[in-house]
Amino acid sequence: MRTLVLVALAAALVAACSTNGALAATPGSPGRAAIDLTVFAAASLAGVLNKVKPAYESTHAGTTLTMSTDSSAALEAKIEQGAPADVFLSADTANPQKLVQKGLSAGEAIVFAVNRLAIIVASGNPGGIASPADLAKPGVKVIAAGDEVPITKYALQLVDNLAREPGYPADFAAAYGRNVVSKEDNVKAVIGKVELGEGDAAIVYATDAKASTKVTTVDIPEGANVPASYAGAVIGASSHQEAAKAFLGWLTSPDGQAVLSSFGFLAPPE
Protein backbone atom coordinates (compact mmCIF):
# COMPACT_ATOMS: atom_id res chain seq x y z
CA MET A 1 0.00 0.00 0.00
CA ARG A 2 2.88 2.39 0.89
CA THR A 3 4.40 1.71 -2.52
CA LEU A 4 1.13 2.53 -4.27
CA VAL A 5 0.81 5.78 -2.33
CA LEU A 6 4.36 6.83 -3.27
CA VAL A 7 3.71 6.03 -6.94
CA ALA A 8 0.52 8.09 -6.86
CA LEU A 9 2.31 11.05 -5.25
CA ALA A 10 5.09 10.86 -7.84
CA ALA A 11 2.57 10.81 -10.67
CA ALA A 12 0.78 13.83 -9.18
CA LEU A 13 4.06 15.71 -8.89
CA VAL A 14 4.95 14.99 -12.52
CA ALA A 15 1.49 16.15 -13.62
CA ALA A 16 1.83 19.35 -11.61
CA CYS A 17 5.22 20.09 -13.16
CA SER A 18 3.80 19.45 -16.60
CA THR A 19 0.90 21.81 -15.90
CA ASN A 20 3.27 24.53 -14.69
CA GLY A 21 5.36 24.09 -17.81
CA ALA A 22 2.27 24.47 -19.97
CA LEU A 23 1.32 27.62 -18.09
CA ALA A 24 4.77 29.05 -18.60
CA ALA A 25 4.43 28.54 -22.32
CA THR A 26 0.95 30.02 -22.59
CA PRO A 27 0.93 33.75 -23.49
CA GLY A 28 -0.81 35.89 -20.88
CA SER A 29 -0.81 33.20 -18.18
CA PRO A 30 0.49 34.02 -14.69
CA GLY A 31 3.33 31.52 -14.99
CA ARG A 32 4.55 32.71 -18.37
CA ALA A 33 8.20 33.68 -18.63
CA ALA A 34 8.66 37.46 -18.67
CA ILE A 35 8.96 39.07 -22.11
CA ASP A 36 10.43 42.50 -22.76
CA LEU A 37 9.25 43.77 -26.16
CA THR A 38 11.36 46.53 -27.68
CA VAL A 39 9.20 48.83 -29.79
CA PHE A 40 10.80 51.24 -32.28
CA ALA A 41 8.22 53.95 -33.02
CA ALA A 42 7.83 57.22 -34.89
CA ALA A 43 8.42 60.32 -32.78
CA SER A 44 4.81 61.40 -33.36
CA LEU A 45 3.67 58.32 -31.43
CA ALA A 46 5.55 59.19 -28.23
CA GLY A 47 2.51 60.50 -26.36
CA VAL A 48 0.34 57.60 -27.49
CA LEU A 49 2.87 55.03 -26.34
CA ASN A 50 3.05 56.59 -22.87
CA LYS A 51 -0.61 55.63 -22.53
CA VAL A 52 -0.38 52.37 -24.47
CA LYS A 53 2.36 50.97 -22.23
CA PRO A 54 0.38 50.72 -18.94
CA ALA A 55 -2.83 49.79 -20.78
CA TYR A 56 -1.18 46.88 -22.57
CA GLU A 57 0.98 45.66 -19.69
CA SER A 58 -1.99 45.59 -17.32
CA THR A 59 -3.85 43.14 -19.55
CA HIS A 60 -0.86 41.08 -20.73
CA ALA A 61 0.80 39.70 -17.62
CA GLY A 62 4.51 39.13 -17.99
CA THR A 63 4.97 41.44 -20.99
CA THR A 64 6.90 44.68 -20.62
CA LEU A 65 7.14 47.29 -23.38
CA THR A 66 10.36 49.24 -23.90
CA MET A 67 9.85 52.19 -26.25
CA SER A 68 12.37 53.96 -28.46
CA THR A 69 11.13 56.89 -30.59
CA ASP A 70 12.76 58.80 -33.44
CA SER A 71 12.21 59.55 -37.09
CA SER A 72 10.73 56.54 -38.87
CA ALA A 73 13.50 56.67 -41.47
CA ALA A 74 16.20 56.70 -38.78
CA LEU A 75 14.63 53.73 -36.99
CA GLU A 76 14.28 51.74 -40.21
CA ALA A 77 17.98 52.31 -40.91
CA LYS A 78 18.88 51.14 -37.39
CA ILE A 79 16.89 47.94 -37.87
CA GLU A 80 18.67 47.29 -41.16
CA GLN A 81 21.96 47.72 -39.32
CA GLY A 82 20.98 45.09 -36.76
CA ALA A 83 19.63 47.14 -33.86
CA PRO A 84 17.62 44.81 -31.58
CA ALA A 85 13.89 45.47 -31.87
CA ASP A 86 10.71 43.41 -31.88
CA VAL A 87 8.16 45.80 -33.39
CA PHE A 88 8.50 48.78 -35.74
CA LEU A 89 5.72 51.42 -35.76
CA SER A 90 6.23 53.92 -38.55
CA ALA A 91 4.53 57.19 -39.50
CA ASP A 92 4.26 55.92 -43.05
CA THR A 93 3.93 52.69 -45.00
CA ALA A 94 7.12 53.07 -47.03
CA ASN A 95 9.63 52.38 -44.25
CA PRO A 96 7.99 49.17 -42.96
CA GLN A 97 7.64 48.05 -46.57
CA LYS A 98 11.40 48.41 -47.00
CA LEU A 99 11.86 45.84 -44.24
CA VAL A 100 9.31 43.54 -45.89
CA GLN A 101 11.04 43.77 -49.27
CA LYS A 102 14.45 43.08 -47.74
CA GLY A 103 13.22 40.04 -45.83
CA LEU A 104 13.75 41.71 -42.46
CA SER A 105 10.15 41.44 -41.24
CA ALA A 106 8.04 38.54 -40.05
CA GLY A 107 5.06 38.94 -42.35
CA GLU A 108 3.51 41.94 -44.02
CA ALA A 109 3.25 45.49 -42.71
CA ILE A 110 -0.10 46.39 -41.12
CA VAL A 111 -1.71 49.84 -41.18
CA PHE A 112 -2.91 50.57 -37.63
CA ALA A 113 -3.81 54.29 -37.72
CA VAL A 114 -4.27 57.34 -39.92
CA ASN A 115 -3.23 60.90 -39.12
CA ARG A 116 -3.93 64.26 -40.76
CA LEU A 117 -1.75 67.35 -41.18
CA ALA A 118 -1.89 70.71 -39.44
CA ILE A 119 -0.16 74.04 -39.91
CA ILE A 120 1.09 75.39 -36.60
CA VAL A 121 2.26 78.91 -35.78
CA ALA A 122 4.23 80.20 -32.83
CA SER A 123 2.43 81.81 -29.90
CA GLY A 124 1.39 85.35 -30.82
CA ASN A 125 1.70 84.45 -34.51
CA PRO A 126 4.73 86.72 -35.15
CA GLY A 127 4.72 85.81 -38.83
CA GLY A 128 1.16 87.07 -39.24
CA ILE A 129 0.01 83.85 -40.88
CA ALA A 130 -3.73 84.00 -41.43
CA SER A 131 -4.03 81.29 -44.07
CA PRO A 132 -1.85 78.56 -45.61
CA ALA A 133 -1.11 80.93 -48.49
CA ASP A 134 0.94 83.06 -46.07
CA LEU A 135 3.54 80.28 -45.76
CA ALA A 136 4.91 81.63 -49.05
CA LYS A 137 5.11 85.28 -47.91
CA PRO A 138 8.62 86.79 -48.04
CA GLY A 139 10.30 86.75 -44.64
CA VAL A 140 8.23 83.95 -43.10
CA LYS A 141 10.44 81.40 -41.33
CA VAL A 142 9.23 77.84 -41.89
CA ILE A 143 10.61 74.93 -39.84
CA ALA A 144 10.64 71.59 -41.65
CA ALA A 145 12.07 68.11 -41.20
CA GLY A 146 14.81 66.30 -43.10
CA ASP A 147 14.17 64.94 -46.57
CA GLU A 148 13.92 61.30 -45.37
CA VAL A 149 11.48 62.00 -42.53
CA PRO A 150 7.88 60.95 -43.42
CA ILE A 151 6.35 64.29 -42.39
CA THR A 152 8.39 65.95 -45.16
CA LYS A 153 6.79 63.80 -47.86
CA TYR A 154 3.32 64.53 -46.49
CA ALA A 155 4.07 68.26 -46.10
CA LEU A 156 5.27 68.61 -49.69
CA GLN A 157 2.17 66.77 -50.86
CA LEU A 158 0.06 69.27 -48.92
CA VAL A 159 1.99 72.20 -50.43
CA ASP A 160 1.40 70.82 -53.93
CA ASN A 161 -2.32 70.45 -53.15
CA LEU A 162 -2.50 74.02 -51.82
CA ALA A 163 -0.75 75.34 -54.94
CA ARG A 164 -3.75 74.12 -56.95
CA GLU A 165 -6.27 75.88 -54.70
CA PRO A 166 -8.02 79.00 -56.08
CA GLY A 167 -6.24 82.22 -55.16
CA TYR A 168 -2.82 80.71 -54.51
CA PRO A 169 0.15 82.13 -56.44
CA ALA A 170 1.59 80.04 -59.26
CA ASP A 171 4.96 79.86 -57.51
CA PHE A 172 3.50 78.93 -54.10
CA ALA A 173 5.48 75.68 -53.77
CA ALA A 174 8.78 77.31 -54.74
CA ALA A 175 8.18 80.29 -52.42
CA TYR A 176 7.35 77.91 -49.55
CA GLY A 177 10.63 76.07 -50.18
CA ARG A 178 12.60 79.31 -50.04
CA ASN A 179 11.10 80.08 -46.63
CA VAL A 180 12.33 76.84 -45.04
CA VAL A 181 15.06 77.93 -42.62
CA SER A 182 15.69 74.66 -40.79
CA LYS A 183 15.38 70.91 -41.36
CA GLU A 184 15.07 68.86 -38.18
CA ASP A 185 15.64 65.18 -37.41
CA ASN A 186 12.00 64.41 -36.57
CA VAL A 187 8.61 66.04 -36.15
CA LYS A 188 9.03 66.50 -32.38
CA ALA A 189 12.09 68.65 -33.03
CA VAL A 190 10.13 70.66 -35.62
CA ILE A 191 7.41 71.44 -33.10
CA GLY A 192 9.98 72.27 -30.44
CA LYS A 193 11.57 74.95 -32.61
CA VAL A 194 8.21 76.58 -33.33
CA GLU A 195 7.28 76.44 -29.64
CA LEU A 196 10.55 78.24 -28.81
CA GLY A 197 9.85 80.93 -31.38
CA GLU A 198 12.76 79.93 -33.61
CA GLY A 199 10.40 79.74 -36.55
CA ASP A 200 7.04 81.22 -37.52
CA ALA A 201 5.29 78.11 -38.76
CA ALA A 202 5.53 74.42 -39.64
CA ILE A 203 3.50 71.63 -41.17
CA VAL A 204 3.14 68.79 -38.66
CA TYR A 205 0.76 65.97 -37.77
CA ALA A 206 -2.63 67.03 -36.43
CA THR A 207 -2.13 64.85 -33.34
CA ASP A 208 1.08 66.69 -32.42
CA ALA A 209 -0.56 70.07 -32.94
CA LYS A 210 -3.38 68.96 -30.63
CA ALA A 211 -0.91 67.85 -27.95
CA SER A 212 1.00 71.16 -27.81
CA THR A 213 -0.24 74.02 -25.63
CA LYS A 214 2.33 76.43 -27.04
CA VAL A 215 1.17 76.68 -30.65
CA THR A 216 -2.01 77.47 -32.52
CA THR A 217 -3.17 76.15 -35.86
CA VAL A 218 -4.20 77.65 -39.19
CA ASP A 219 -7.15 76.06 -40.99
CA ILE A 220 -6.31 73.92 -44.03
CA PRO A 221 -8.86 73.52 -46.84
CA GLU A 222 -10.35 70.06 -46.32
CA GLY A 223 -9.82 69.05 -49.92
CA ALA A 224 -6.10 69.84 -49.71
CA ASN A 225 -5.28 67.97 -46.50
CA VAL A 226 -3.29 64.74 -46.68
CA PRO A 227 -4.00 61.44 -44.86
CA ALA A 228 -0.90 59.93 -43.26
CA SER A 229 -1.10 56.15 -42.88
CA TYR A 230 0.86 54.62 -39.99
CA ALA A 231 2.02 51.02 -40.45
CA GLY A 232 3.71 48.50 -38.18
CA ALA A 233 5.77 45.38 -38.72
CA VAL A 234 7.17 42.57 -36.61
CA ILE A 235 10.94 42.32 -36.93
CA GLY A 236 12.17 39.05 -38.41
CA ALA A 237 15.15 38.86 -36.04
CA SER A 238 12.90 39.17 -32.98
CA SER A 239 13.07 36.29 -30.52
CA HIS A 240 9.52 37.15 -29.36
CA GLN A 241 7.65 37.14 -32.66
CA GLU A 242 4.38 35.76 -31.30
CA ALA A 243 4.27 38.35 -28.53
CA ALA A 244 5.20 41.06 -31.05
CA LYS A 245 2.37 39.97 -33.36
CA ALA A 246 -0.02 40.01 -30.40
CA PHE A 247 0.97 43.60 -29.57
CA LEU A 248 0.58 44.78 -33.17
CA GLY A 249 -2.79 43.05 -33.31
CA TRP A 250 -3.84 44.78 -30.08
CA LEU A 251 -3.17 48.19 -31.67
CA THR A 252 -5.81 47.42 -34.31
CA SER A 253 -8.26 46.05 -31.72
CA PRO A 254 -10.99 48.22 -30.13
CA ASP A 255 -8.81 48.74 -27.03
CA GLY A 256 -5.81 49.92 -29.01
CA GLN A 257 -7.92 52.05 -31.33
CA ALA A 258 -9.56 53.73 -28.33
CA VAL A 259 -6.15 54.90 -27.10
CA LEU A 260 -5.14 56.11 -30.57
CA SER A 261 -8.46 57.88 -31.05
CA SER A 262 -8.05 59.77 -27.76
CA PHE A 263 -4.98 61.44 -29.29
CA GLY A 264 -6.76 62.33 -32.53
CA PHE A 265 -5.74 59.40 -34.71
CA LEU A 266 -8.27 57.96 -37.15
CA ALA A 267 -9.02 54.29 -37.64
CA PRO A 268 -7.28 52.56 -40.56
CA PRO A 269 -9.39 51.84 -43.64
CA GLU A 270 -11.04 48.42 -43.62
Characteristic key phrases:
D-Maltodextrin-Binding Protein, domain 2; 270 residues; 2 domains; single chain; elongated; disordered N terminus; alpha/beta; five-stranded mixed beta sheet
Structure commentary:
This protein is an alpha/beta fold. It has two domains: 39-113 and 228-262, 3-Layer(aba) Sandwich (D-Maltodextrin-Binding Protein, domain 2), CATH 3.40.190.10; 117-224, D-Maltodextrin-Binding Protein, domain 2, CATH 3.40.190. 41% of the residues lie in helices and 21% in strands. The chain contains ten helices and ten strands. The chain has helices spanning 2-25, 46-59, 72-80, 94-101, 150-163, 172-179, 187-195, 206-211, 241-251, 254-262, and strands at residues 35-42, 63-70, 87-90, 110-115, 117-122, 142-145, 180-184, 201-205, 215-218, 228-234. A five-stranded mixed β-sheet has the order 2-1-3-10-4, sandwiched between helices. A five-stranded mixed β-sheet has the order 7-6-8-5-9. The protein is elongated and about 60 Å long. Residues 1-29 have low confidence and may be disordered.
- The CATH H-level homologous superfamily of the largest domain: Periplasmic binding protein-like II
Q: What is the class of the largest domain in the CATH system?
A: Alpha Beta
Terminus-to-terminus distance: 66 Å
Task: Tell me the CATH architecture of the largest domain.
Answer: 3-Layer(aba) Sandwich
Number of domains: 2
The biggest sheet amounts to: 5 strands, mixed
Beta-strand percent range: 15-25%
- Which series of helices and strands comes N to C? HEHEHEHEEEHHEHEHEEHH
Question: What is the number of E strands?
Answer: 10
Given the C-alpha coordinates, what overall shape results? elongated
Mean pLDDT over the full residue set: 90
Strand order of the largest sheet: 2-1-3-10-4
State Rg: 24 Å
Helix content: 40-55%
Q: Helical region count?
A: 10
